Amino acid sequence: MGLIPEATIQEVRDRADIVGLIGRYVELKPAGRNWKGLCPFHQEKTPSFNVNMDRQIFHCFGCGEGGNAITFLVKHENLTFPEAVRTLAAENGVEVPESDRHDRGETEGLLGALEEAQRCYREQLLLPTGKTAMEYLQRRGLDAGTIERFGLGYAPDTWDTLALAFERAHIRPEFGVAAGLLSVRSSGGHYDRLRGRVTFPIQDVRGRVIAFGGRSLLPDQEPKYLNTTESLVYQKRRVFYGYPHALEPIRRAGRAIVCEGYFDAIALARADLGESVATCGTALTPDHAQDLKRRTKQVSLLFDGDAAGQKAMERALEILLPSGLRVRAVVLPKGFDPDDFLMDHGAESLRQVVDGARDAVEVVIHRVMRSVGSSPGDKADAVRHVAQLISRISDPVERSEYTRRLAMATATDAGAVEAVVREERRGQASEKQRNSPVEKFPSRQNSPEDRHLRMLGAILCHHPTFLTEDRVSEINRVLPEGTWKALILELVDAVSAGILDERGFIDFDAMEHRLSSEQMGMLREVMVEESVISTETPAETVFTQLLDRYQMKDLEVREQELKRRLSEPDANHVQLLTERQELIERRKALKNREVLQYPP
Ligand SMILES: [Zn+2]
Q1: What is the ipTM of this complex?
Q2: CA of 474 to the centre of ligand 1 (A)
Q3: For residue 580, what are the CA distances in angstroms to 303, 562, 572, 575, 577?
Q4: How confident is the model over 112-130, as pLDDT tens digits?
């Protein structure tokens, strides 16, 4: 794949509606010139995540994450930069020039092969060869609409249906092999990997097919479920089956339902629980948890009612709790999975069971306690088993509440249970430290000085014309040295180089090439800064007053210096006193020029 021309990227950025885009993932409320919401990149209870429509940028004052519409998709959806550009381009009707077909990269090659496979499998299901598969799906209660909606297909029990389809479509078999769709024959040539199976397309959040799950239709065929292999476009630890269709329902319902099987996810969706997704042949991973955390606060786990299902539920809970998600456990009657349950009891009953799901930690507490033996040792084991889960809860209030409940449920001394939870938590903390360095977010400085400098920067961005020659030299002379001064001087340079956009503001996008990523973060901060624009005082007055303040400070420092020199034994009193008098007068003049009342 060739590079996307800069002009196209620019056009994509210009046409993107960042508020609409981010609004799909984050609930945004208008706040002055910005839109505000809870940051999807770090945990917070009060919104510090800002989206600025004028600038088409977002910035979080809590964790410093920020950028434009393209970078949002890159960071939030784990897309590569070109993928994000193409996604936005497609949505906004911008044409991205395709480079030479033969030159298409590995990713495009893989996706092309997967797309062709999807076309082929769906076609096969509708042909007479697919009759057995179709009957099987109908027996499981799936109608034509559901089959169509989930893109179900059939991989016939032959060796080369797909291999031949690739040949006809001029798709290189290497891509089929890399996608886990074909295998290489020892005698040369290729053969189909999925045979005699119903196929479930696994899609990324953009709806592109990235893998397949295959359910065996032949008696004695092992394994019952076979997935295509991981590849450049498919990592199962990150992917949920059914995710693209579930995104909107998850946002609406305020929760995600996580189950284990393709048929389960489909059954739930058929029962009007569209917020359901399934893991793809793997247990829930921290990557999954992080992804869910960005989209919702609550997760309902729906695993089989047997012992294995319960174990899986506890493992999932261990993964989800540290991320701060509230987790509920849907408990189906023994022997039922969601699919059976839907068939036997109907959609309404399934919805009731899901909606009535209890808090997952409570479920574990009660299950463990029911089965515990009576000896002190048994009890200690059981308490520790649950304490280990509780210790993973990130919120201290919640954690202590569960600790209290565990103590009550087991009739154990609360202090003793608390000690066990603390012990477990310490164990995890040191484990975490060993395994991964704790990520540290740069925290926003909020001293008055910092605020004033930020405001100066903000005014500069929006009113480059305020920069007279005098003011430039003043800025050079009186601003305190540091990162803010460095940034402000960069802005001054940009103004003199004429790097302005059509509104006469400093051109944010163009600054990207001139600033470090830390400085870009600071620049985003000043660009979404509201206090500047919302004030009643004209911006130029604020600007002058801020500069005057720094000048005043500068004069004070110089006066101190003169005082010191005057006290030296061989001081030239006449000259120093004259200088000092000069300073005092300048200070007076400055004071008289304006009443320094703003900013506070
Ligand atoms: Zn944040």
Answers
A1: 0.96
A2: 35
A3: 81, 7, 12, 9, 5
A4: 999 999 999 999 999 999 9
